[in-house]
Amino acid sequence: MDFSSTSPAPPKPVTIPMRAAGSSPGRSLRTRWRLFMLAGMNVLMVIVLAGVTMITLIDQRRSINRLHESAARHSQAAIQAAERDTIARLAYAGQTNTAESLNDSAALRTWVSQLDLYPALRSISVVAADGVEIAHTPPTPDRVVPNWSEHPAWIAITSGETEGRPARVLMPGDPPVLAVAVALGGGPAVLVADLDPQALWQAALAPGAGDKGIIYLVDSSGRRLAVDPQAKIDEASDPAGFAIFEAARDGEPQTRL
After folding, report:
1. Quick one: three-class SS letters along 118-166?
2. Is the overall model pTM greater than 0.70, yes or no?
3. Cis-peptide, bond into residue 188, ω within 30° of zero
């Protein structure tokens, strides 16, 4: 039997996979997890910063609103105090005078000069119970004597509607007029004073609201009655068009000036 020698088979060549030109090496699962974690942390930081910024802006807005509300209420108190003081002076004058003591314009003018009602006082008249004007000051050459029997302030006093208290009526017109009527002592005559709302209340509005805030005093129709004369305002602006005006007019009574 013929035995021939055998040699081991040659080793197979090792094949190394080649990556295509321009392709990136494959990432391991750990590397991918780290990248996802970093991306998530970045997104979380953006969300947190946005939330902090929003909260800060809301707090600032609330602080500004509180400042404006405080300024408005301070002005409201000052407005009411100025009006009460003026009406109280007129009421005292009515109690301590009669139609006979103020039966002509010269006597009325002398007496008014002692009241310290200027510059808010535009004019003042003494009107009899039948609506006839007895005296008026200051003298105005082109003045037309109003029909006092139709004047709401005179009617409120002579009809007893106010029960002895002064009558206060915001008259229509441009510029607006605040009419205050009081009964004269010792008889049925009435003292009617026309006041300038701007001059009466401008000092109460002077503090404003913050560095740039402006406080307007308007009536229920949005007509401007008074504003700080030093404030830089746009004359074309109409407070009646402000959303906050409608909210204050239709809202709670304490929010109205």
Report:
1. CCCEEEEEEECCCCCEEEEECCCCCCCCCCHHHCHHHHHHHCCCCCCCC
2. no
3. no
